[in-house]
Amino acid sequence: MPQLRYVTPFLRVPDIESAVTFFTDTLGFKVSIRAGDYAFVYRDEAAFRLVEDEPLTPRGGGRYTSYIDVDDVDALYAELKPKLDLLPVGHVMAPCDQT
């Protein structure tokens, strides 16, 4: 069975340079990837994906993204595909709309 490794949240920030500086200089994180308006920062087993995004979503917008690292994505897909095929098509407010 494939193992899920990490869940890495995306944090949308108004200024990528200031955010990277805060995470590195203040919180002691290290930068693994830095490309344009994106940075991957980590410290020990904790990590964040910082993305510059202006304007930020207004309050109540409910926008959130995570990235899950997995050791064998093809095996995970094969495991989940039959279950995913049973989900309703269209906009689903998971998990309450799933039966």
The CATH superfamily is 2,3-Dihydroxybiphenyl 1,2-Dioxygenase, domain 1
Helix content: 10-25%
- What's the β-strand tally? 5
Please indicate the count of domains: 1
The biggest beta sheet is recorded as:
5 strands, mixed
Report the sheet-strand fraction.
Answer: 35-45%
The CATH class label is Alpha Beta
CATH architecture: Roll
In the predicted model, the low-confidence regions spanning at least 5 consecutive residues are none
Report, as a whole number of angstroms, the end-to-end distance: 25 Å
Given helix and strand content, the structural type is alpha+beta
Q: Strand arrangement, largest sheet? A: 2-3-4-1-5
Average of per-residue pLDDT values: 81
Please report the number of helical segments.
2
CATH topology descriptor: 2,3-Dihydroxybiphenyl 1,2-Dioxygenase, domain 1
Shape: flat
Order of helices and strands: EHEEEEH
Using the CA coordinates, give the radius of gyration.
17 Å
Please describe the structure with a list of short key phrases separated by commas or semicolons.
five-stranded mixed sheet; 99 residues; alpha+beta; 35% strand; 2 helices; 2,3-Dihydroxybiphenyl 1,2-Dioxygenase, domain 1
General description of the model:
This protein has 99 residues and is an alpha+beta fold. The chain has one domain: 2,3-Dihydroxybiphenyl 1,2-Dioxygenase, domain 1. 23% of the residues lie in helices and 35% in strands. The chain has two helices and five strands; from the N terminus they run E-H-E-E-E-E-H. It has helices spanning 16-26, 73-84, and strands at residues 4-13, 30-35, 38-43, 46-52, 65-70. A five-stranded mixed sheet has the order 2-3-4-1-5. A hairpin with a 2-residue loop joins strand 2 and strand 3. It is flat. It starts with a strand and ends in a 15-residue tail after the last helix.
